[in-house]
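User: Quick sanity check before I run a bigger batch. Here is a single chain. Can you write out its predicted 3D structure?
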Amino acid sequence: MAQLTDDCFAFGGPLLSVEAAAALIAERVPVLAGTETIALTDADGRIAAADVVAGLDLPPFDNSAVDGYAVRFTDLTPGAETALPVRGRLPAGAAPDAGLPAGAAMRIFTGAPMPPGADTVFMQEDVRREGEAVALPSGLKAGANRRLAGEDVARGSVVIPAGRRLTPPDLALAAATGHAALSVRRRLRVAVFSTGDELAEPGAKLRPGAIHDSNRILLVALLRRLGVEVADLGILRDDPATLPDRLKAAAAGHDLIVTSGGVSTGEEDHVKAAVEAVGRLVFWRLAIKPGRPIAMGLIGETAFVGLPGNPVAVYVTLLFVVRPLLARLGGAVPEAPPSEPARAAFRYAKKAGRREYVRVSLHRGPDGTVEAVKFPRDGAGLLSSLTGSDGLAELPEDVTRVEAGDMVEVYRHPLLW
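Assistant: Done. Predicted structure follows.
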């Protein structure tokens, strides 16, 4: 298994854009996940560890695309109806006993192999059966309704590239081309903590000054949707004496540690010092809002990411920063997030030099164009802004003002591309 090195997260320098951060991850972070072979039925959502090559042509033989009658095109009378005697019947799954004789038609069904000599198929609803013969209309093109061997996939071609996150259609294609099992990357093991003396477990009675821990619930759910094995290790208290040992213990047996809160510069933000006591922390300052105070580093050979404490910042940074890191560690090919254009139905001012993600709801305007309506309140601590919006409008670094009518790119929730 590859190991992370001391300099893989040594990005430093000025504030990084999201693209620059993703590029540095792709350049410096090695793939950690090993491989295993699993059945197709268990492979949905896993990462292909090797190219999947077609073991046969698809379809494997010329076959009929419809229920109808197979003929030789040269037996048809140009511009007029043709009557041919029907010789034989060929259902799907059967092999033709003999070729189609000249001057005859054969009853054939969808998926059945084309009998030797036949090259064209008439749909049954387009013909007229007359006893032991069939009347065929004029106008059909040569080769109509015939599927050629290999027209979908050629034997020996790559049907699924290494690094692809497998989908149900991928698995169906693998099955159709002769595979019962695939080599995939093992699932990454991710440990998740929340930090802070103010946190209480969900459902617990709150003491004065306490709040329920929602960040950990958000992180665990998102990470599981991203296909990793998550170890929920609870709440780390703001105790500088115990934090280092807790982090070091979490590093053993995990590929990544993700925490929320405690990585800023406040007097009660002890995570930075704890990581430096047992590993190496390089602050990765992103030009992003919400989410600027995000930290990356190493504890032994385990990657560490410290996310901000506000829940919206946790959401944004996990999906735009941590997700590319997970893809790289897990051997997946990076994917550009899908977005869609929308017309802004709001006005907004921002600073130059940083990217902002504004929570918006989407609807169609009077002319049918999709419009983005900004959530009425700002704040990275508003969980209701995530449940009460459809997605995030991305405002690039060079934008300082958005006017109603401007076009913006929107990423729909839950942003798990």
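The longest helix spans residues 311-329.

User: Great, the batch can go ahead then.
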